[in-house]
Amino acid sequence: MNGKSVSKIIGESFGEFGNLWAKILASLVLSVGSMIGLVLFPLFGFFLSYFAMGFLCIGQKKYVLGSLNNKNLPVETVFSSFKICVQAFALKTLIILYSLLWSFLLIIPGIICLLNYSFASFIMAENEGTDAFTTLEKSKNLVYGYRSKIFIIALFCLLIFLVCGAIGFGITAIIGLFAVLPVWSIILIILGLAIIGLVLIVLPFYEISMAKLYFEAKSNTLKPKRKTKSA
């Protein structure tokens, strides 16, 4: 496999984490917060939130890519892809539909399907005129050779999440040496720290590392292949 090793991608992502953390977190809070706000809308809240999920995700990816390219984009860029809301809605719906269909057959094909479409939102963020089917096909081609790296990054993020939960468990164990804690409070502390770690560390890091991997995959695809001399 060509390109940087997954350990180097993770290391570079941590290097960018300090500079981009506040920006990426703000974009995530704005996009997810908007979807949660729409869910609370009377009668059709769920459908509005589901419809908005597509273009909010594309806009958020556009903001992440711009931040990594040192572009001073406003955080309102999250809403900038509303003009392609239909294509974005179709893209998210197809990803969910294909992943569910493959998962019904076997878990492994469902995971592979999700990995194949890992770059779809990034691709549509950079090519807003592209339709959903073409975007999925481009993502599948671009991901080829990078599935293992994407999977390792996802496992690494899961590990960080579990470590945050383990820290919460350690805190409850220390408190338990001096006082008896009810079960609900133990669960609340463990889940609370795990969720805080997910929001403040895991999700921003995942966004940065996936964007960097996308740039690497795209740059390697654009590189001209060397011609081998025939014997």
SSE map:
Layout: H1 6-39, H2 45-68, H3 85-105, H4 107-116, H5 120-126, H6 132-143, H7 147-176, H8 183-222
Helix pairs in contact: 1-2, 1-8, 2-3, 2-5, 2-8, 3-4, 3-6, 5-6, 7-8
Largest sheet, in brief, is: none
Helix content: over 70%
Q: How would you describe the shape?
A: globular
Order of helices and strands: HHHHHHHH
- How much of the sequence lies in strands comes to under 5%
Number of helices: 8
Structural class: mainly alpha
Poorly predicted runs: 226-231
Our count of domains comes out at 1
> What is the strand tally?
0
What is the rounded distance between the termini? Answer: 25 Å
Average pLDDT across residues? 90
Radius of gyration: 20 Å
Structural summary, described in words:
- The protein has 231 residues and is mainly alpha-helical.
- The protein has one domain.
- It has helices at residues 6-39, 45-68, 85-105, 107-116, 120-126, 132-143, 147-176, 183-222.
- Helix 1 (6-39) packs antiparallel against helix 2 (45-68) and helix 2 crosses helix 8 (183-222).
- Mean pLDDT is 90; it is low at 226-231.
